[in-house]
User: Which sequence fits this backbone?
């Protein structure tokens, strides 16, 4: 069994701006997380969301990817094609990260299928998208890479992209323009960002992250545009601190 520890323990305590939901709830409660495979797509906080969910959820958790991800500091990394090694690792560590080592220190998808991993862990949380570190994203035809038997898909949106030109804020801006009628030099409004998500209709629930970067009114405009099309939305600031 190859378990690699990444130095620097980090705590993932979320700092939450409850602009939409009243009271204080864990992120996992707001998302109504269910056991099995959850895919996280979009931009502006996917990896942070994975980390926070791993800390909040009760039960065993595997953090992994269907595209590329960096290992998580302080969480054991397991590289194996043996499901019994996975079970043994989870008996020792409630949360592990799994993947296949790739270039630039990143991980690609694990050798074992996500469905097989879901038989060993209570939760398998998959980062299923890339965004070039931009707050907003439009998806190409081959994206996102949603695993078979995924039970919930969460789309993360970075509010810091609102008010900026499309070409500066959006990964694959040409696709965003084609789906929304926006121009590359045009400003991303909350309604335009919502329109792009509605056109793709890839997720069960949307997380508006970086809520501290916009006014309550801007957040409300975004959530109302999505809710009118049947999307569930939460508004928050995902954050974690170094210990």
Assistant:
């Amino acid at each position: 069994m190859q378990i690699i520890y990444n130095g620097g323990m980090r705590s993932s305590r979320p700092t939450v701006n409850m602009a939409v939901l009243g009271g204080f709830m864990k992120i996992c409660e707001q998302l109504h997380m269910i056991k099995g495979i959850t895919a996280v797509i979009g931009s502006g906080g996917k990896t942070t969301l994975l980390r926070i969910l791993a800390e909040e959820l009760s039960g065993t958790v595997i953090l992994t990817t269907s595209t590329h991800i960096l290992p998580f500091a302080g969480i054991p990394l397991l590289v194996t094609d043996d499901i019994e090694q996975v079970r043994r690792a989870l008996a020792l560590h409630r949360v592990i990260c799994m993947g296949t080592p790739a270039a630039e220190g990143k991980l690609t998808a694990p050798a074992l299928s996500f469905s097989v991993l879901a038989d060993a862990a209570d939760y398998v949380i998959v980062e299923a998208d890339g965004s070039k570190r931009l707050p907003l994203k439009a998806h190409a035809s081959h994206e996102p890479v949603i695993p078979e038997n995924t039970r919930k898909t969460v789309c993360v949106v970075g509010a810091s992209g609102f008010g900026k030109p499309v070409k500066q804020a959006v990964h694959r801006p040409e696709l965003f323009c084609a789906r929304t009628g926006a121009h590359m030099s045009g400003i991303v409004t909350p309604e335009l960002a919502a329109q792009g998500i509605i056109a793709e209709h890839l997720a069960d629930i949307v997380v508006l992250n970086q809520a501290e970067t916009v006014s309550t009114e801007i957040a409300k405009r975004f959530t109302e545009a999505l809710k009118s099309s049947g999307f569930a939305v939460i508004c928050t600031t995902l954050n974690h601190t170094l210990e």
User: Anything to note?
Assistant: The chain is about 30% helix and 25% strand. The helical segments are 27-30, 46-56, 83-92, 114-120, 166-169, 173-180, 190-200, 216-227.
